[in-house]
Design brief:
273 residues, alpha/beta, 3-stranded antiparallel sheet
Amino acid sequence: MDRKATVESIFGVERALIGVIHLQALPGSPSHSIPVRKIVSTAVDEARRFESAGFEGLILENMHDRPYSKRSVGPEIVASMTAAAQAVGDSVDLPFGVQVLAGANREALAIAHTAGAAFVRVEGFVFAHVADEGLMEADAGDLLRYRKAIGADGIRVFADIKKKHSSHALTADIDLVETAHAAEFFRADGVVVTGTATGRPTDPAEVDAVSAAIGVPTLVGSGITAENIARFGGADALIVGSSVKVDGAWSNPLDATRLEALARAFRDTVTRA
């Protein structure tokens, strides 16, 4: 598989910079307090700012809904995220994806299919791990059958491997590269490599090792900053959600200076490649 062609087919470029829209707490979650209409308008505003800065893609996440339910969310979350995703899609000319925490991969596919998204980011795709929410087992077989059943074959599945915020003692005898091979064998359209937690740096050597071993795109899913972005030349796409926020904290609003600096640093790496 030509992984650069895969990335270009989605984002229009061979390497992509993807901005994360962390939706404010949605109805039913412990921290919910803001009307959905306001949550949607904030998401649209962030989408436009990412687009203006030169990002090639977006992803919407229900990050503020902590603590997360394992493997499923209520219809109120699906409805709210669908509304936000549709509004973002109508407001910017960028491909976008959806992730529903924690591991609610079927719901993410349903939202993406309804809202016209290009991809989903999923966790617990192959093997098992112990997440913050407890034991999470693999769902690749069920998930891709569901994708087929709802006619969503065109939505790409980017799968986290050795996912952050998790213990991987259960698969200590299987390294990251072998996990990537398994995800590719199970028809993931790309794999996501991360550090140990949101905002924590990913190991560039691990990204290079995975990228050299598989034929599908390798994405970096945490810890990208304007200062370290040049170290990830092996990645086909970079997902950024923390370093472009005020004080570099994912829960804060976007910081215009950080946003521009990150986008400029990414363009510099593309120019030098």
